[in-house]
Amino acid sequence: xxxxxxxxxxxxxxxxxxxxVKGISFSVARGEIFGLLGPNxxxxxxxxxxxxxxxxxxxxxxxxxxHDPVREPxxxxxxxxxxxxxxxxxxxxxxxxxxxYIARLIGISRxxxxxxxxxxxxxxxxxxxxxxxxGTFSRGMxxxxxxxxxxxxxxxxxxLDEPTSGLDPQxxxxxxxxxxxxKRRGVSVLISSHLLARVQSVCDRVALFNEGKIVLIGTVPExxxxxxxxxxxxEVEAEGQELEAHLAKVPGVQRVESVGPNRLLLLAQRDVRPxxxxxxxxxxxxxxxxxxxxxxxxxxxxxxxxxxxxEGERHAA
Amino acid sequence: xxxxxxxLNGLGVVILKELxxxxxxxxxxxxxxxxxxxxxxxxxxxxxxxxxxTAEDPFLLLRLxxxxxxxxxxxxxxxxxxxxxxxxIGLGFDAVNSEHNRRTLSRVLAQPIYRDALxxxxxxxxxxxxxxxxxxxxxxxxxxxxxxxxxxPGAEETARAFIFLLVTIAYAGVWLALAMLFSIVFxxxxxxxxxxxxxxxxxxxxxxxxxxxxVAAIIAPPxxxxxxxxxxxxxxxxxxxxxxxxxxxxxxxxxxxxLLNPDxxxxxxxxxxxxxxxxxxxxxxxxxGQSLVIAWPDIVGLVAGTIVLFTIGYMVFQRQEVRA
Lengths: 317, 324
Prior knowledge:
The complex is a heterodimer.
Chain A: E1 4-15, E2 18-29, E3 33-37, H1 44-51, E4 59-64, H2 73-79, E5 80-83, H3 95-106, H4 110-123, H5 139-152, E6 157-161, H6 169-184, E7 188-193, H7 196-200, E8 205-210, E9 213-218, H8 220-228, E10 232-239, H9 243-248, E11 253-260, E12 263-268, H10 273-282, E13 286-293, H11 297-307, H12 311-316
Chain B: H1 11-24, H2 26-50, H3 60-66, H4 76-92, H5 97-101, H6 105-109, H7 115-149, H8 155-185, H9 189-219, H10 224-228, H11 234-244, H12 248-260, H13 275-278, H14 288-319
């Protein structure tokens, strides 16, 4: 089996004359958390539905775990867990009953069923509400129940559509922890979101969507280099003579700004903290504080569309 | 391009889930009581009417279905023809759109099943639920009839009543398929329910009683020759009947009439019977086989209607986008 779990080539979706996904290509490696990021309506959910065989593919091709979602949707859906945007459950049934229905649809044997349901609910912290009707669940609990379903399924790939939208920060952190845990279990995760900052922390690689196209793809630092020309901001607080000149010589540093007494801001292509520390000490200075700010997806996104303002208009025309 | 795997994967699971939903729902409880109470009234009236003639009547059991007390034109068949659609529509109007609205559809369809299984499962579970109620009701009628009248039904009578039961289930199937079709077409359950009930009212009350005749008069204008004699033109009458059979209610009532009134001469054909045809006709009741021959086209019509409506719904559902 290959190391690529999801592969999309020139994937296109048309509704009548409108093209909502315009020939996108990307691949997700085994054990990777891949983010599809972009504003609402950029084509993320449509892409996901095509990968699951729930929506026809107008053009191009998709492979999920070496299966064609169009011809072999059952093979794909047997191995892929899906958490839809604003996941819904049967409110009149309990958490356990909801999972039992899905377990039977998947075809989990009677002996294994109960055990798997209990284990997966315990894993997402819902063990004590197994007999409670889902109608009483909060949004965060529903999302966790959705993740429990994916765990129960022993999915090799988890596709999560906007898992964190509408959740409070505390619940978001818990949810992201569960997602990281999926990765530890060897599950590849495709996660879609319009909340760039929140999912940035879990994604190994991201694809930025806009107007049905992938405009940028790569790891966050890579994108930072590509778009912001670096994007790492290292803050140095130190006492000493001519530190500014010494720090400017550090390889990778593009610019040094003085932002206050004894405080310097380095704009760098990468994390230059060790070199900066060595430079300060080498110049006989006293290093008081060193902090790095990784490039934020938000900044990358903003900057990219600031620099390519006509990207959208051209396609809309 | 062939799909992998069976379209019926997971069908049994869906049926059981839907069935348990139906049987435990408050809605079903209410509908069941409605049917039971109405039936008790109709049965009571029928029994009161036939009680005095138990000795001479060879089709006592069938009378329970068809007799009304003088002055109160409520028969068991009439009640069934009105209540069965209500129950069927009540079970079907939110079959698919509720999955959309609860946002469960994409999650369920992301499991290794085809959409076919979900739709078939919902239809079969709905029809099965109605069948359970109808069989129970049917047994109650026979039981109560035995108890009150004290005359055991003959084999042919029982067979006629049983075929009538099957026809009633087919009749329920038409309305269930119609309700499910609109539950697929309309995203709002309320809209689907209103439209389905609207069509039911139209097809049951307006169309057979008035509109079909008006359209028939346009297709085959009445012959002045017949009109001068004060008679309806046969062609117009025939057209009126053909058109009124577009309504499942007409079909059901015709089948019920033929099956449950074997000794009524006007149940020997569907359509106008001329006096000349009745002259020299054999006396007595029609055998079951002959009644079936007469009713067969209507029975086929009911089943075909169910299949056509379900197929349209199926096609729409297959093409529908999963996302809300």
